[in-house]
Fold this protein.
Amino acid sequence: MHSKLQRLLSPRSICLFGSDWAENVAKQLTKSNYSGQIFAVHPHRDTLAGIACVKTIQQLPFAPDASFIGLNRSASVAVVRELANAGAGGAVCFASGFRESDLDDGELLQTQLVTAAGDMPILGPNCYGFINYVDNAVVWPDQHGGVTVDGGVAIVAQSSNVAINMTMQQRGLNLAYLVTLGNQAQTQVCDLVDALVADPRVSAIGLYLEGFGDIERFCHSALRAREAGKSIVVLKVGKTQKAQVATFTHTASMAGGAAASSALLVRLGIVEVSTISVFLETLKLLDHLGPLTGSAIASVSCSGGEAGLMSDLAEGSELQYPDFSPATTSVLRKILGLRVTVANPLDYHTYIWGDVPTMTDCFSAIVAAPFDLHVFVLDIPRADRCDPSGHDCAIEAICNCAVALAERGIRPTIAVIGLLPENLSADVIDKFRCADVITLHGVETAIAAIDASIRAGQKGFVDSVIPMLSASVSTATSKLLDEVSAKKVLKSYGLAIPFSAVVSTLTELQQVTKNKEHSWVLKVLGVAHKTEIGGVRLNLRTEAELEFAFEDLMQVAASLSPHDLQQQELNQGRETQILLEQQIESPIAELIVGVSRDASGLMLLTLGSGGIYAELIKDVTHLLLPTTANAVYKALSELKLAPLLKGYRGRPAANMDLVVAAIMAIDAYVVDQGEGLLSLDVNPLMVTPTAVFAVDALIEFV
């Protein structure tokens, strides 16, 4: 499909159908100086924005590469069929009222549209079209703010209005393509990624999406982009919607659709960002320098406040500020004097301000140092109320450094950051662009964009080649394995469980615990969430404590309503049972390990602080299954409880090999179950210095 899409997106001929909206496209094509042929088809008009009209498609001299169909939905289907039969390159379907609408015949019309198109690519319906700024092909019925470029990034968006706004950016972003998807009746995001990756003029791809469409095809497209060395940046909207199918487990309540989509992007090595500004700034960095190969950043400013801000905002990101080397430090001390502390981030003060040669020497020493990115914090006073000429010295010195590097055949890795996005005007951006220096707008946004560019350059996604577990989601009533049965199954996969016994009478309890010096736990069986109904008793050591807790829990069990019980049909007519279990003493940490099936069908592994802490302090991370031991190690290291596992303040450390092995045992079980498994919880997974135990478990099947 991608070669056909390339014909559509880089057309040498364009045909317009319709009146007002088609006329808007004609005007935009004229404004952009499109050099290809433009045709118009209209049964009743002689001209369209100065273009001579023919009455039918058959009267065209040849099949056009691209068409804009600004007609009603029924007429659009008919025109698409004629274009496909004529061998046209593709079409933009502007009309709405298909599957995305509430109209009764919307689904039927969409099916007819796709059938009519056959293998001819169509964008939409309910789609504005596309803009190719390299070839000046503007198949777009509205204003836009872009200009002709030799190459740059491509943006694919599901929202036409957001796409329009992106073209209005004044950040110096080289935008080569802007393509809108509409409701993706036929052409999906993966098809466009394939086509854009194949265009050598495209440096990186940005996706503004609500969903990925066919996940398997999207994965293949993402991997092809990685193989071609073209990074993908994703801004996904609609994260607040819950998308989990499972209902009984803690895991399902903690992992909405955003968790699965984010885990998918991590698996594929795709960078995810959260705002439009970071989206654009990241794409700009990737276009200008490509993914950063490391995280070593040099920060330079003439203010201690700015230096401190750069340091503080990098906290929790991938950015690192290594010290300058002794040689660089020595040079800087000679230039700046003893009153300036040489550190990274550097506040060089204002002692050399206005002295362009000295500023150039200072900055040259810094950009010559082997950092992955050299950042200069600089805000220019507004020209309508102030005189900005006093800052020309900094602009000139920075540009001098970049030009000197270029003359030696070295590509400058220099970025200028304005604390506020409006403090770097178009004129200033152009001055820096001429010296091959990139500008970043807004310090928080810039830090996030640099962080994303570092992540784009990381090569730690070796598990991306592992096939992901995915299945259609069943709406059938689920069934549960209770704690005893679930732990027995997991034990067969190598997961350790504490000594336990199921008892129905006080006599049975006494027989099991006789002559055993342990702390014990008693639990009511047959309940999914035992703590919520007061069905657990801990730290029982004496015979009296055990007897009192047992009688108490028998009363709790007797008071349960059918709604409280899991697998009600299995509990009917069965005597009340209590689970007796040896309590794990002095654990280092408690983890929750959960598996849930996302609405997309992907199986999501959730790791977090055990018990209630995963929800209270939001200490969770997610991976897609199956996974690898390396990925599990990395995920555990990102949790807030990671210091406990490493041995916090002299306390014993966990055997991480055992912890990871326990989680990989769960992974193996899930893989073997395939589509039948809906969700699984091990909460807590108790970690001691020498062992790891599944203390509670629940498994849900379709």
Summary: The chain has four domains: 2-237, 294-439, 499-582, 589-701. The mean pLDDT is 90. The domain at 2-237 is CATH 3.40.50.720 (Rossmann fold).
